[in-house]
Amino acid sequence: MRERSGTRAALASALALVLLATACSGAGEVGDSAEVDLDVAPGVTDDSVIIGSHQPLTGPAAPGYLAVSQGAAAVFDYVNAQGGVNGREIDYRVEDDKYDPSETIDVTRQLVIEDEIFAMVGGLGTPTHSGVLDYLNEEGVPDVFPSSGALAWNNTEEHPLTYGWQTDYTKEAKIQGEYIVENFPDQNVGYLFQNDDIGEDSQAGLDQYLSDEVVTRQHYESDVPDLSSQMAEMEDSGAEVIVCSCIPAFVALAMLEAAGMGYEPQWVVSSIGGDTATLQALLAEFTDGTDAEDVPADAFLDGALITSYMPRVEDEDDDWGQFFLSVYDEYGDGGAPTNTHVFGMTQAVMFAQVLKSAGEDLTRQSLIDALETQEWQGPGFTPFSSSDGDHGGHEGVYVVQYKAGGTIEMVQEARVTDREGGPIEEVDFERLSPEDLPFHD
Amino acid sequence: MNYFITLTLNGLASGAAYAALALSLVIIYQATRLVNFAQPALALLSVYTAYTVTQLTGSYWLGFAAALTTGLLVGAFVERVIVRPIARTSQLNAIIVTLGLLLVVQGAVGMIWGNEQHGFRYAFSYVGRFSPADVFSLVAVGVVALLLFGLYRFTPLGLRMRAAAFHPEAARLSGVKVGLMLTAGWGIASLIGALAGMLAGPPFISPNVFDVVFVFGITAAVVGGLDNPFGAVIGGLLIGLGMSYVSGFVGPELATLTALAIVVIVLSVRPDGILSRPTARKV
Amino acid sequence: MTSPTTEREERSTTSGAGAEPPRTPRTSRWGSLPLPARHLLLAALGLAAVTGLLFATGDLTALRIAAIGYTMLAIAGLQLLVGGSGQVSLGHGAFMMIGAYTMALLILHQPMLPLAANLGIIVVVSIVAGVAVGAATARLHGPYLAGATLILAVGLPGLTHRYHEVFGGSNGLNIRTAGAPPFLDGLLSTSEWRALVVWTTVVIGLAVLATISAGRLGRRMRALRDDETAAAMAGIPVGKTKVVAFVIASTAGGLAGGLQAYVLGTVTPSSFTLVLSLTLLAALVLGGIGSLWGALWASVAIVYLEIWARDLARAMDMSRNAENNLPVVFFGIVLILILRFWPLGVHGALQSLRARLRARSSSS
Q1: Which of A247, A418, B249, C333 could link A422 by a cystine bridge, Cβ 3.0 to 4.6 Å?
Q2: Residue A352 sits in a domain of what CATH number?
Q3: DSSP 3-state assignment of A378?
Q4: How far is it, in rounded angstroms, from Cα A407 to Cα A340?
Q5: C60-81 tens-digit pLDDT
């Protein structure tokens, strides 16, 4: 009996101690985190390296983004078939987070702790990846090329191990704004944007060049698949040019709504939504009874302007576009690749390239050193920053116009800019062909 | 004014789809006293079947027929094989089982057809301010509501179905095949659910496409009242119009909150929905 | 994740965290203790068990143990509402969301407030929310209540889009919270510390819920569930009791959400979806309605079933579409099978197993 009450007393006091400790000090007062050790190489053996990614594979957000990891997986399979990188096969592990940050946190820890990934590659989504940004940096896990154009990835003070990839939304929008002013002077412009950082950052860029021309600003929520009132308002306000900072499903919906009303604006679509292969597949069902009955979806897309920084599958003259088609044909999941696949494929090529540069003696430090010193020469069409305190990734965009028949025409070569009020400049950027770019053995 | 008319027409068109789903929920409630969470799943399966049939044959209407047939058969099958053994134990368990079914079917559709989006045609042309497709939705929903009203009010089958649902023991004593009536109720409800899917599915379908529609379907059903098919139609149109006006005049982010507001306002005045009959004390 | 870890966990938490008073008082001393004291002791035992478990496992498990903790608290609150008063709410995720956003806003704008104070504020906010929802739905029954709470769970996230500047829109709010206090450095990792903080709150909450459930209020709620009219005739204030049930549920849900925000450091509308609310209710029935033990099995199921299914899918070498969708199918099948063969859920099945074992041992 004595012993039992002794145990109880001990437990009760332990509980009290914990309570007391919880009760003092502010919950939001955070100390500085310790230095991380980068001279390590978890997940790396002589013949393999494990990398991880979080992607929405199921759930409401899966449809638009599923293709990213499919594309990346195809390239890594191709690389492995060529003998890997520095003798190592790439073991690419994708975890499904359903685009829910609480799941992202769980699967990221699983990747880091259980799978012992060497690096996180292409983690997808702004809200999701924001949830693991601190964790990855604190754990010393290189966070390479998150799949989102949020401005937050380029902050070397707070997140030195995070390297942005996508041209950020503001840079892209500035170039769109300038293009519209130069090519459609005095026309009424309407904005249609997703109501999150995509919309916010895009407007910040557009507004630097457009002001009086803007007649309406319409937004949508990504979980409400309806644009009827937005497009009605667009037509009502007399917008002649619509800048669509939207994901492909909503670009398609907007085009369909417009066609239903007999409204034919000039579309200017951001890279995130300008995946014409996906748009064609979605819209092909709806051409019956229009002029373009036998030409899939051309009636909707003809003349649309699209900003882009990656190679494109429609680009018949581009080595990389053709290379990706053939890689996907052999290593993909079947079907034709879209530009969303190319997104993941371009990321994968660039990651493999850094891995190659990091050398035989692979550690997290050597990977970071390689990123900081890499001289980028494609597959993207713009210069790429990953050094000297600028982890912004692609620095600009080029503009293409979709032509009936499924081809595209480059209407403005790549230009670069910053995300503040800096000028937009033309660049002279040399890309290497797939054969010359060292990204596998 | 022009804009107002456009919003009204948009609201009616989307309201028709909510009303169709609400009708299928009303039928199931009438037949089994259950809220059926598997309804969107059965609609999903039907619509994907239609998608495949249309792809193979090139005929939209063959696909349409296939969807309705799938709805009818799968609904009856699910009642017989999965729901009935569990519904015996408790009503809550039966509801939860329909939830489990929703997960299984949604996942299975993803397994078979993938999680990508597919373009899915309208029954008629979508071109025009109030397009033939929109007219078709409204007319289809109106006709179905009338047919159901007739079925329950005037036919012996409808009477037996209601008796089986509300007073199973008494019904059995007077010779009604209660089990058969339950199966029939599920079959008819799922057929209407399939129709709702065909109306609400376009332009793009994916495994989660009916999540939101289903929520507004339930909302429409409770706003209108679960006793009366016309209640479902009124509820659906009310929700559709309310959401269209608010997203047009105030902002689309408030659309779902509008539905919530409508529910709160209507149910605080009439706890059993707009077209409910005053109920006596039930024990 | 391997099953031995969880089994260990289940066994050890079984020894304490739950809150059902033993049927037959084993010792006169135990029986002579007042009910709240008994529940508090059980709570302390549960916490000790969780602490032991944390020392035996790693950082990843710590996060999941914390997840089991706050999910269990949320479900326990729902248990009292659904199992206790018979009101089927499909909107429990809304209360978690309110708690989570309250926690995030407090930490962002009042970082020097201690966590305990934040939790206290969350309780107050949740009570207000519970009164509002409870009062608005007190006259509703059956499918009408279900529909109204469902649209609450779906509609509420709209507010975060409307008041973008305050709630951060669909990207939500990111917060940083203090880790383990300095004197525990090297003894506990940050995740383990957080798991411990979560479970401390959870076991206290469970003890309170158990005490309520065993008391007069609990009896009133059960009377209401069994027959509303009869309860009214017996002098039970029907409307008031229903509202109180909602308040209890919303408080437990709000606290759970607050703890989730504290552990994860991020709050977004996409974490509080329709799926969450439906899953909470489904898991409650799966775990076993009518007992707080059910909430434990339910939360273990929510956290671990999907992880097991992921491992299973990988081991089976399926096509990519099949592999991706297996976890959701798996959860659905487990749910259907359990309800088919164990209508009273996991807890009910365990109880009948125990009864059968006891019968066998007494007959031999």
Answers
A1: A418
A2: 3.40.50.2300
A3: coil
A4: 17
A5: 899 999 999 999 999 999 999 9
